[in-house]
Amino acid sequence: MSNTVTNVVFAGLGGQGIIKSSDILAAAAFAAGLDVKKSELHGMSQRGGSVTSDVRFGSEVLSPMVPAQEADFLLVLEPTQVEINRGLLRPGGVLLSPDLIPDGALRNKKSLNVAMLGVLSVLLALQPEHWEQGLKECLAVRLHKVNEQAFALGRRQGEARFKS
Amino acid sequence: MATTQQRLLLSGNEAVALAALHAGVHLGTGYPGTPSTEILEYLDHIGGKAQWSPNEKVALEVGIGVSFAGGRTLITMKHVGVNVAADPLFTAAYTDLIGGLVLISADDPGMASSQNEQDNRHYSRAAIVPMLEPCDSQQAYDFTLKAFELSERHKIPVILRMTTRICHAKTPVVPNQDVTPAPTPEFVRDIPGRVMIPAYAKPAHHRIRAKMAELTRFNEHSDFNRIYPGSSELGIIASGISVMHAREAAPQASLLALGMTWPLPMALIADFVRSVKRCIVIEEGDHLLYEALRAEGLMVEAKPEMYRFSELTVPRVRRILAGDLSPEPQPPKGKPPELCQGCSHRPVFEILGHMDCIVAGDIGCYSLGVLPPFNAMDTCVCMGAAIGVGLGMRHVLPEAQARRVVSVIGDSTFVHSGLTGLAEMVYNPPPTGHVVLILDNSTTAMTGRQEHPGTGRSLGHEPTNKMDFAAVGRGMGIKNVHVTDPMEDPQGFASLLQELLAKDELSLVIAERPCVLAAPMIRVYEQAAEEKLQTSCAGAVGH
Fold first, then answer.
1. Of all helices (H) and strands (E), which one includes residue B446?
2. Secondary structure percentages of chain B, helix, strand, coil, to 5
């Protein structure tokens, strides 16, 4: 049953753009006409502490939370958050850690979240126009260009890593 | 996107706000509180009229006024906010409302950002008010529209109870705008319906019971509830987010999803229970539904006690169905939250810790003063409790300890519930005096930087009257009132505190420094206000 739904968990620290990147993925999947649910915790947990956000999409999504050990993808923005969240992955699930983006490759380090989405895009069936729509809907106009570049860079890294 | 109907991806909070707008809501009021805060912000953003009240009690009272005047009103708060608003709520239920009044109770099972995980379904029973519980954003939208109609049809407040995973989860919504038009506000006198002196309240109690009986009959056939047919071996009764967890955990089961959870449609439920071999109630929090069904003599199972605590999830529902009582795997322990670098609360808690103060604390970002490296908070109970709790300790502790007690409260929290604490302090001063410290960072920081009466800006960040905390302290009769910036002069702050603690007098210290996260936006708001003022002055000269 669960293989009709794709489960992605984003993890990092407050202020890294975890919620923003999960918003972008949710918007991209939504633009593709899929059922989408996205959930995370706000408030106290975001004062610099650990943050996770769940995105699920497919033909029909029920619970908005990715059950433990059922994540197809775990996208982590902060190295210290890899081990504590690894248990969320299903057997055979894919871990995407920030070392997939080489140091200094990004013009702006703040767009690491979007670069990691570029990596993820290689592994998902969403089309480029859906990603484009997701990015445009969720980011201010002045941030479009730098994030489009970050996404493209991540996509190249993803292709080198997963498609060779 | 050539669809005839717009399809949107909205959080439950956004869906409620959109429905309120589509229902022609005349006024949205509330007090910020996770997970409810975004409702009024989004209502304002999409063009509705929304404002923050100093606290939930006042917000509900304003809402009751709107309803008596014939307007539709949405009042939003977190679960513990309903405790503050409980006084007007219980008697508003007795009155005959006119305009639709919808109260949002946003509960926080699992306490992601709260001091308790109370289950506000209790309020529908205690206050005699109907309750709706959506299971996703679409229902949050649909139920909000229907809640206004229900409220007007039965002249009764309606509670829409949400939880964190309904409020903050984004799910698809197709808005249909299918709602009776809002009434036009007009004053029509109705003394027996609105003046709750005993002579009128006695018949009013009978009226509200009759209204509930009518609502029970309505709910037996309402489209708030839905049956998902399945195997006759296992039946599940659920509401709110538990509906989704249960459908995923047991796709083969028959499921009765209750959308209107008070008053309960007992005949519908009884038929469902009889249609299956085994029937289990899957509810987050207390065993309320289970107890109500057992009292009715229905043979249903409850979840084991261990699942009363925290949120339900799909794996937990699977465990409940399997009767699994083994210890649960612990969720990953992440990095705890902390005060931001550059936060003005940091030097304050360093100094309070150094001076070995006994700190009666309060609710806000500054509650983080309890964690390392500060370890500088001794109590935290509810909004405004810092002052009363601090005074209570001062009254009974041995003198040497009493002198170390300081009440620490944030600016928004002070406006919310600190004023009566100050009145208590002036009226019943402890023998050693007392020191109240307002940590004024010019915003309601924890919930995402909302305005309040002390910032001088409205919900939409427009200029309005500003409450002067120092003048309030002096006006209430506090002898020593000081305003200081603990960041600019920590030494001065420390010696001021030392000096005041040594006196047998009452003191109010306002530690003023904008929140580091809010400061850039505050500058933008101030600049915009200034520019507006200059344009309007230029216009006036032109006349």
1. none
2. 45, 20, 40
3-class DSSP assignment, residue B479 = coil
Residue B166 to chain A, least CA–CA distance (Å): 9
From residue B496, alpha-carbon distances to A21, B223, B405, B490, B493 in Å are 46, 63, 15, 10, 5
Long-range contacts of residues B376-381, Cβ cutoff 8 Å, at least 24 apart? B376/B349, B376/B350, B376/B352, B377/B349, B377/B408, B380/B115, B381/B115
Confidence of residue A2 (pLDDT cuts 50, 70, 90): very low
Mean of pLDDT values over B241-254: 98
HEC string for A95-133: EECHHHCCCCCCCCHHHHHHHHHHHHHCCCCCCHHHHHH
ipTM for the predicted complex comes to 0.95
Q: Does B257 touch chain A (CB under 8 A)?
A: no
The domain limits of chain B are 8-220, 226-322, 345-526
Tell me which of 1.10.260.40, 3.20.20.210, 3.40.50.970, 3.30.1480.10 is the CATH number of domain B8-220.
Answer: 3.40.50.970
Closest CA to B159 of B102, B232, B89: B102
A87 has a chain B CB within 8 A of its CB: yes
> Please, what CATH class does the domain formed by B226-322 belong to?
alpha beta
Percent of chain B with pLDDT over 90: 94
- Report the residue from B113, B170, B245 with minimal CB separation from A38: B170
CB nearest A49 (choices: B164, B313, B337): B337
CA B525 to chain centre: 26
Range list of β-strands (E), A26-159: 35-40, 50-58, 71-76, 89-96
Chain B residues in contact with A80 by the CB 8 A cut-off are 335
Instruction: Give the Cα separation of B431 and B402 in Å (integer).
Output: 9
Q: Which residue of B has its CA nearest to A53?
A: B169
pTM for the model stands at 0.96
pLDDT (tens digit per residue) in B458-491 = 999 999 999 999 999 999 999 999 999 999 999 9
Q: Please, what are the domains in chain A?
A: 2-162 (3.40.920.10)
Interchain CB distance below 8 Å, A1 and B447? no
E strands, B366-479, where? 405-410, 434-440
Distance from CA of B538 to the nearest CA of A (A): 32
Cβ separation of A49 and B335 shorter than 8 Å? yes
Do the first three CATH levels of B8-220 and B345-526 match, i.e. the same topology? yes
Superfamily designation of domain B345-526:
Thiamin diphosphate (ThDP)-binding fold, Pyr/PP domains (3.40.50.970)
Location of structure tokens 């500088």:
B376
